Structures are given as C-alpha cells and as structure tokens.
Amino acid sequence: MRIEVVGFEHFLNLPGWSVDRLVFSGKDLQVELHRDRRRSLVCPRCHGAMTPSRSQSHRVRDIGLGPDCPLWLTYTTIQGRCRPCDRYHTEHPPGVDGRSTIRFQRWVSSLCRIMTLQDAGWVAGTVPSTAWRMDDRHLKRNLPEPCLDGLTHLMVDEKAVRNHHGYVTFVLNAATGEPLHCAEGKRKESLEAFFRKLTPAQLGSIKAVCMDRAGHFRSVVKAYLPQADIVFDKFHLIANYNATLDEVRRQSWHEAAKADKSFIKGQRYNLFARRGTLKDKQQAELDKLLAANAPISEAYVLGDQLRTIWQQPTLEKTTAALDDWIGLASKSTIQPLQAFAASLRRSAAEILSYAKHRITNGKMEGFNNLISRLIHRANGVRSIPYLFRRARAAVRFSPRQPVCRPA
C-alpha cells in the first residue's frame, strides 16, 4: 500500500529532506525520503562546496508503531569529494547514526532502563544483542565522564559479577555516590588503574578511603595516597565478627550432647539479628540458648558491645571503647574471640579513623545491590565497560544520588 504524504517530514524532523511516500507492506512501514536538490554538498571540515561523486541507497531503522510494525527510512545518499581537503563525505539525513537513527537508539536505551534486554529487544522489534549495542552507543554518546576534581573521600570494594570468582573492583565518591572507576579483577592492579588517571592535585585532595580489610587495596592506597587515612568499613568488621560468632556456635555444637545439637544449629539467624528485631518466639529461643551455653553467650554479648565502638562521639571515647573491647576479648578462654581481638589490635589505626571521617561503605553496599539488579536485567554481564556505563546511568538519573559535574 502506497500513501502520498505531504508535510510528514515535519513530524520526522528532517530538515533538508522531504518525504515522497509511505509504503506499508503489512509487516513494516517504510518512509521514502529524498534530499532537497537545491542544497549544495558542503564539506564538514572546510565548509566548501563538494563535487558529487556517486550515489547509494540506504535503509535505516527509526521508532515504529510497536514490535509488530517497525519503521524504516529509505533514501539515496550522494557522496561528495572536497578537492581542497582531498576527502570524501556522504551526507545522511540529520540524526542518522549507522543503521538506525539517534532517536531510535535513545528510545531503545530508555527501554533498557526499565526492563531486561530481551524484553527491550522484543518491544523495539530487534534482538537483545542489538538492543545492548544501541544502549551502549547511546550511553557512550551522552554520559559525562566521571568527575575526578575535588575528591575528598572514596569508597573501594570488589563485587562478584560472574561465576567462578569473576570479580570487578569499583571506586565510588563517598560524598555523592558517583561511580568513578571500574576494573576487572580484585588485585592491586585493578585499583592502581584508577589512581594513575588522577593528577597530583586530585590525589592530594583525597583525605580518606573506606574499604574492607583487603591487604592489596591497603598497600595501593598507602603507595598513592600517603596523606590519606584508611578507614576500615564497620559493616565488614561486624560481618567478620559474625563469622567468628558462628565459629563459636559450631564449636559448641560439636561439643554439645546429641539432644542439644538441633537446638544450637537452628539459632544462627537469631544470633546475627540486632536486638529488638526478633519476634517474641525467636527472642525466647535465643534467651534460652544464651542461658544454657556460656561460650555462645559470651560471644553474643561481646558482639553487642563491639557495635558500640562506632557509636562514640569523639576519637578519645572511640579509642577507649576499642581498647576495652580488645582487652575483654583477649582475656576470654575462647580461641576464636582471642584471634579476632588480635586482628582488631593490628587494625586499630584504620578502625579509629572512622571517628575522624565518619564514612562507611554503606553506599557501596547499596551500589553492589544495584549492580546485581543490572546484571539480572541485562541477562548477564556482556562487557565490564558496558556494565559500568549502565551503573553510572542508573545513579545519574536517581534523585537520591546526585552526580558531581565539573565546574
């Protein structure tokens, strides 16, 4: 079916090009265009006139009428030659990028923000691999580069994104939550790649870096940021202590009588929960366990006291609380508690840095959850740079996560 159309080019917003007709085949809609012959060919470099060389037919994809009716723009281009520049240039309608229009890529990218790549490809009438390439191209064209000026506090962590320990290292701005860096692996080279991008002035402005107790990250920060404090994340430390508490529980299970083993085994969740969050039945079971088992009770009470270290208002009181806790745990007869106290003593400076800077990796943990959702929505990790761009886009358009921009 051929339909004569007048003024449809204003709807498509293609200045310099006119619509000859629409052709509906029953499966797709084609818009036949022709270039305004009154316009001369102009070199994009020197803006001089070009000599026509050859012509060629093109067919590019545009936003259609749904997954069952794609829209195609068909037109004939003229290649021109600029003699002063000795260059050839082919003029396409405005907004054409490769085999599709920029607005089609922008639409596909917006679909990828709210649905899986497979669903976005189905709605757009294309395959998932084409959808993610368009999304990636749109993000490359529109996302600003990370803002590396004026950084004062950073967050560093690794995230498993593939099976068989496929890790990625992320660096975030602790003040804004903006993703600054992403590199495959969790070795020191992954973090060094970020610091190599910074100028001496940018490195000198950083005051503190929050991380877990990974030794390779600590050595890199000390090498590149000798003036910065290292802050060990309190949530990682509490998680480390929960592992110690679970070790005490397992030891008690092995030493308990056969009739008591099932009761101890079922208390893991109750032991890790914060006070006041358990239901009445769960709290009653926990109280019974603590009254009956001295080692578990001692480890549980010390766990509650450990959390108070980060609640102290000053550095002096934080130091006193940490010293008191290490002293109590060191005097315990329970070997896992003694080992954990020794590890805190070795990391005392990094733990006490929290009192000076008051930063944690809380935003980083939320970012890691975002990464998990993006991987699920993308049907897996197609490329690490694409994952990083999707993460930056998700944070950029979140009203709760402002993104730093250069002045």
Core attributes:
single chain; 407 residues; alpha+beta; Nucleotidyltransferase, domain 5; 3 domains; six-stranded mixed sheet; five-stranded mixed sheet; 17 helices; 13 strands; 20% strand; elongated; disordered C terminus
Low-pLDDT residue intervals, each spanning 5 or more residues: 399-407
Mean pLDDT: 87
- The best one-word shape is elongated
Distance between the termini: 55 Å
- Domain module tally: 3
Q: Give a quick account of the main beta sheet: strands, pairing sense, barrel closure.
A: 6 strands, mixed
Q: Can you count the helices?
A: 17
E-strand count: 13
Rounded to an integer, what's the Rg over CA atoms? Answer: 30 Å
- Helix-and-strand structural type: alpha+beta
Strand content: 15-25%
The helix content is 40-55%
Order of helices and strands: EHEEEEEEEHHHEEEHHEHEHHHHHHHHHH
What does this protein structure show overall?
With 407 residues, this protein is of the alpha+beta class. It has 17 helices and 13 strands. It has three domains: 1-94, no CATH class; 153-232 and 362-396, 2-Layer Sandwich (Nucleotidyltransferase, domain 5); 234-357. The strands form three sheets. Strands 1, 2, 3, 4, 5 and 6 form a six-stranded mixed β-sheet that branches. It has a five-stranded mixed β-sheet with strand order 11-10-9-12-13, sandwiched between helices. It has a two-stranded antiparallel ribbon with strand order 7-8. Strand 9 and strand 10 form a beta hairpin. Residues 399-407 have low confidence and may be disordered. The two termini are 55 Å apart.
